[in-house]
Specification:
With 170 residues, the protein is an alpha+beta fold. The chain has one domain: Cyclic Phosphodiesterase, Chain: A (Alpha-Beta Complex), CATH 3.90.1140.10. The chain contains four helices and nine strands; from the N terminus they run βαββαββαβαβββ. The protein starts with a strand and ends with a strand.
Length: 170
């Protein structure tokens, strides 16, 4: 059984804007490893190993009648071992809760993972959070939720879209 999660996928021009901003800042160095753009997403909820058909039916029911949400990527921040961009959008948290984030023990925090680094060296990212403090993508209307399947491969996970769910008003 694959590992499943639901996510919003940023549009191509937003992905390009983030990639250009990172490229302008140079190589990460210092043990920081960029996540490739094909893995960039905004997780709504994590499900773990699950049956795709059963989870898709559950998610379709939970998302029924939900409208598109306006979102924008903004400045960088960190979790232990992770450099990420914040995601702004007033309706994003309610959408994430509808997708199952409310079942998580910690509060939902919308983000897009940019890089990983050794947890024991939290100071590695200070210069990156400072350099990306003024970053802001264009605002876009996210009209689709993707049910993603994660498969382990050498070099990191490979994500694929298992199903998509259109949000009303998209």
């Amino acid at each position: 059984m694959p590992v499943l999660f639901s996510a919003l996928l940023p549009p191509d021009d937003v992905v390009e804007a983030v990639a250009e901003a990172l490229g302008a800042l140079g190589e990460p160095g210092d043990g920081l490893r960029w996540e490739p753009p094909e893995r960039w997403h905004v997780t709504l909820a994590y499900y773990g190993q699950d049956d795709v058909e059963a989870r898709a039916a559950w998610l379709a029911d939970r998302l029924a009648g939900r409208g598109a949400v306006d979102v924008r990527l903004e400045k960088a921040a960190t979790f232990p071992g992770v450099l990420w961009l914040t995601v702004a959008g007033s309706e994003l948290t309610p959408l994430a809760h509808a997708a199952g984030a409310d079942a998580e023990p910690r509060p939902y925090r919308a983000h897009l993972t940019l890089a990983r680094f050794p947890r024991e060296e939290p100071g590695l990212t200070r210069r990156w959070t400072e350099r990306l403090s003024g970053f802001s993508s264009r605002r876009w209307s996210a009209g689709e939720v993707a049910l993603m399947a994660s498969e382990r491969e050498e070099g990191g996970p490979r994500y694929r879209v298992a199903r998509t769910f259109e949000l009303d008003g998209a």
